[in-house]
């Protein structure tokens, strides 16, 4: 249901917002000064004629009603999509193209699996197009798998999953997962237990509920046995749910109404690790040849070679940093002569999506030192010399920015940071402004070994350069962003909530009127039992086993079995989960229902999730990724373990979740996707309360917690 005063709604549908610099129409967003410099991934287009967007008139009694109007010309990547059904087509095939290699200054030819469709950018085919929708839409996506059938070198082939569930296989089979969407997991909805085999078409249908949160989500292939191989090829893209619901005195609204694209241009950044390799001749038919490497183990491609991702010897501990490959942004690898473009003093909403598999990104911005990295200068960036290059080229004072949402869900308050940690599967929405004109380095900074996927101190990496044109100077980034938010609230919020929104913004940049879910209280979980989960890798036998258990020890850990339901969860109830890892760290992801962080206890029992906490159990420097997560809603979370470096290195994480609306079978798993492909996954089923199998794992643990502000009645 549309919410907010009729005048505010009319203003939204008319597309007029006060930007702080004047009045700008949503219908001409692409023509805003400097906004056209932002180049986002292309938007996947409906194969049919667009459906008209609803408009508002103002009849008697001042009650808004809907009236059809002719659809405007599409403005890909920075506009409001039209409402209604969407029919989208994605063809899956091998794509021949090239990827820039900063260590050679040239391009490597590659032959990779990818999506093609209406709107796919032929110049950047290894990032999938953005899918846009509105709450209440029905989105149908037809996958047409054109990949070759039959035996492939290194691929055991496609067979029923129970035959070899935890050995990588079926490299050309696929399916589709809408990561973070609150939709049904069954039938032809977000069902990842299907295998769309080569030369097969299948149409997914996602009925997005009208009360679905707006936010930054993503989609990717999720066929168990080949997920990592396909996602690492670039088969992933942004999925943005756009919202137009203003807050009311009784219900919360969408953050989009506070920071519309007319006032705060958005930059969509899909971050990937495309770990292509060139290979030598195979020893015998049906096998893959060895990966070509230099004396230091870096991947190399000789003239005439074509790189690919064809085997799981390209995954494993330390393989990403050892490869010498580079994280790509929207399918393009760092090139100082192809910079991002921004304007001094222009606040942007950066929608950042970690769509990679085997790297942790610690995002920072630094001004380029005077006289360094001049436009047009040839820059070779050898992987083993990157740290020295960054030290010589980039400044030492990081630019602060404000996080406003994680995993697509608006936070209870904006959080200023100088470094945001993105693990595989994470999303971060941040308000970014560059205070001075000139060039800036976008850095994946060094991080503690226990806080990153590979468990190695690999040093910083240069992700991109931003050219910032002269504009409005900024003395203090935090006060500048807060001032802009207050200006927008005063201009655009409905009268019956305006004073509340403004008061919240003045009190610690609280976003209470825009959070999508109420807090899960002690009373709500009381008596419902609890869930426990342990990740574990068993290295004692001849074959390494990737396992998940239902207790806080390794006695019952098991690798994935597609014929087994590991957990039955009661529809309509809420439960508290306790999460641990007993061998190295893993990002936990569960489909369908998000969860709220209650506490994160280090091995010494200290809660490191509160704002300002110091997570130094793994040594110095402290790990910055946990402080500030208390009370935050997520769908993917790093489960840290100091094992094997420290025998007493287990972190204990408590989260709470609701099993709302949807029944059926789906999965939870480690989002290091080669771990998932090899067994670190469970089947769970939400069932009617009287059909729960087994005994709850314990009485509800009463936890005294101080949640972020944001409890409310939810979207209605």
From TrEMBL:
| Cross-referenced Pfam families | Cu-oxidase_2, Cu-oxidase_3
Segments carrying the region annotation (Disordered) are: 56-83
**Domain Plastocyanin-like: where?**
172-243, 556-686
| This protein's name | Multicopper oxidase, type 2
What the entry lists under InterPro entries is as follows: Cu-oxidase-like_N, Cu-oxidase_C, Cu-oxidase_fam, Cu_oxidase_CS, Cu_oxidase_Cu_BS, Cupredoxin
Q: Which PROSITE patterns match?
A: MULTICOPPER_OXIDASE1, MULTICOPPER_OXIDASE2, PROKAR_LIPOPROTEIN
Superkingdom, natural source: Bacteria
Task: List, in alphabetical order, the Gene Ontology terms for molecular function in this entry.
Answer: copper ion binding; oxidoreductase activity
What is the originating organism of this protein? Nitrobacter hamburgensis (strain DSM 10229 / NCIMB 13809 / X14)
Q: Does the keyword Membrane apply?
A: yes
Q: Where are the transmembrane segments?
A: 12-36
Which keywords does this Swiss-Prot/TrEMBL entry list?
Membrane, Metal-binding, Oxidoreductase, Transmembrane, Transmembrane helix
């Amino acid at each position: 249901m549309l919410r907010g005063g009729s005048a505010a709604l009319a203003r939204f549908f008319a597309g007029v917002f006060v930007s702080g610099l004047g009045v700008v129409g949503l219908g001409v967003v692409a023509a805003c000064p400097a906004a056209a410099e932002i180049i986002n991934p292309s938007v996947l287009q409906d194969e049919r004629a667009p459906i008209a967007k609803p408009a508002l008139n103002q009849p008697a009694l001042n009650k808004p009603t809907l009236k059809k109007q002719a659809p405007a010309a599409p403005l890909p990547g920075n506009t409001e999509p039209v409402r209604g059904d969407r029919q989208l087509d994605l063809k899956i095939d091998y794509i021949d193209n090239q990827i820039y290699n900063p260590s050679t200054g040239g391009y490597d030819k590659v032959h990779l699996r990818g999506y093609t469709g209406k709107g796919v950018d032929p110049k950047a085919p290894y990032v999938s197009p953005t899918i846009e929708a509105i709450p209440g839409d029905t989105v149908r996506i037809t996958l047409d798998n054109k990949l070759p059938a039959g035996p492939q070198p290194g691929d055991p082939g496609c067979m029923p999953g129970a035959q070899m569930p935890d050995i990588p296989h079926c490299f050309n089979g696929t399916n589709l997962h809408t990561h973070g969407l609150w939709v049904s997991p069954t039938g032809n909805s977000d069902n990842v237990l299907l295998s769309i085999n080569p030369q097969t078409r299948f149409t997914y249908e996602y009925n997005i509920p009208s009360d679905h949160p707006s936010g930054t989500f993503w989609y990717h292939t999720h066929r168990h046995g080949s997920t990592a191989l396909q996602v690492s090829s670039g088969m992933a893209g942004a999925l943005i749910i756009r919202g137009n619901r203003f807050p009311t005195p009784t219900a919360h609204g969408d953050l989009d109404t506070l920071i519309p694209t007319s006032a705060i241009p958005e930059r969509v950044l899909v971050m990937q690790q495309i770990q292509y390799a060139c290979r030598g001749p195979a020893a015998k038919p049906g096998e893959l040849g060895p990966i070509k490497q230099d004396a230091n183990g870096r991947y190399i491609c000789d003239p005439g070679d074509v790189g690919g991702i064809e085997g799981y010897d390209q995954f494993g501990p330390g393989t990403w940093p050892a490869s010498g490959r580079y994280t790509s942004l929207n399918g393009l690898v760092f090139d100082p002569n192809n910079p991002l473009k921004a304007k001094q003093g222009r606040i942007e909403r950066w929608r950042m999506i970690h769509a990679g598999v085997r790297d942790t990104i610690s995002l920072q911005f630094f001004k380029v030192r005077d006289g360094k990295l001049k436009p047009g200068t040839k820059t070779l960036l050898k992987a083993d010399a990157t740290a020295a290059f960054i030290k010589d080229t980039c400044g030492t004072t990081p630019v602060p920015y404000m996080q406003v949402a994680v995993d697509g869900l608006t936070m209870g308050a904006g959080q200023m940071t100088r470094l945001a940690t993105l693990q595989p599967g994470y999303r971060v929405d941040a308000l970014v402004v560059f205070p001075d004109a000139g060039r800036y380095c976008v850095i994946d900074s060094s991080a503690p070994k226990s806080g990153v996927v590979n468990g190695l101190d690999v040093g910083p990496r240069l992700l991109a350069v931003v050219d910032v044109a002269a504009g409005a100077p900024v003395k203090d980034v935090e006060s500048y962003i807060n001032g802009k938010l207050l200006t927008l609230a005063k201009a655009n919020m409905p009268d019956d909530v305006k004073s509340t929104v403004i008061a919240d913004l003045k009190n610690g940049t609280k976003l209470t009127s825009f959070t999508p879910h109420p807090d899960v209280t002690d009373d709500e979980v009381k008596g419902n039992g609890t869930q426990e989960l342990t990740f574990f890798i068993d290295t004692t036998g001849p074959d390494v086993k990737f396992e998940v258990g239902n207790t806080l020890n390794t006695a019952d850990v098991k690798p994935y079995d597609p014929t087994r339901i590991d957990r039955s969860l009661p529809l309509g109830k809420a439960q508290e989960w306790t999460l641990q890892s007993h061998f190295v760290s893993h990002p936990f992801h569960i489909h369908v229902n998000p969860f709220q962080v209650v506490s994160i206890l280090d091995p010494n029992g200290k809660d490191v999730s509160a704002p300002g906490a110091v997570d130094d159990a793994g040594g110095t420097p402290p790990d910055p990724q946990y402080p500030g997560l208390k009370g935050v809603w997520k769908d993917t979370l790093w489960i840290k373990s100091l094992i094997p470096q420290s025998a007493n290195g287990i972190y204990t994480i408590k989260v709470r979740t609701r099993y709302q609306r949807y029944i059926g079978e789906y999965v939870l798993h480690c989002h290091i996707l080669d771990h998932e492909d090899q067994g670190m996954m469970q089947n769970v089923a939400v069932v009617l309360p009287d059909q729960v199998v087994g005994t709850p794992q314990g009485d509800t643990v009463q936890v005294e917690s101080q949640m972020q502000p944001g409890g409310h009645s939810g979207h209605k």
